[in-house]
């Protein structure tokens, strides 16, 4: 038999939930369906912090990300992330207050270090070196997945993307002869690497496409305005939403 949440007025229950740390809320959601609904009904849109402490901006041609913030009475945020053990970083992705950063300097090439950083608490973790890509010949971008209301652990997904131009297949000087150009895109399934802060290692996983393909790889290469820095992904409720070339959105469910 499911236990019901305490019978309290909505404003009183909301005040109680507001005082709980995220990991306690996550545990409360697992008690039963009634508790999950009680937390979600009062958490969505009202209990999650909405204030913006600052923004990181990546300027074209700059090695490092720049931080802009308003005067605040709260703890100062080191926008330069100078507490990291490297010369400087560029923010590659973000999710719920965490940053996915990559070392950005002449010394970092060709194997830059990657970090997951909480700029408010200055806590950070260095990611292990990525395994070799599972889809040879394609670009790959990393995306951060973090849902503090569900778990304090995060994941990093390495997603294959169609490059601006695929090289020839080696048997011809004509780039249009590459057989990869005829593959449907997005593929029916993505075999990707995922890093988990629980296991602290990269593992392989598979996401399956829902619905029809948007076209073939050759169609994606026709997008002359494609810029990987403008396309992002969101991980929400065990599904990965990817903004891709030609402005379409694809959803992958594990």
Automatic annotation (TrEMBL):
PROSITE patterns: FBOX (PS50181)
Lineage: superkingdom: Eukaryota
InterPro entries, sorted: F-box-like_dom_sf (IPR036047), F-box_dom (IPR001810)
Entry's transmembrane regions: none
Signal peptide: none
Segments forming domain F-box: 2-52
Gene3D superfamilies: 1.20.1280.50
One protein family per Pfam: F-box
Protein name stated in the entry: F-box domain-containing protein
Protein species of origin: Triticum turgidum subsp. durum (Durum wheat)
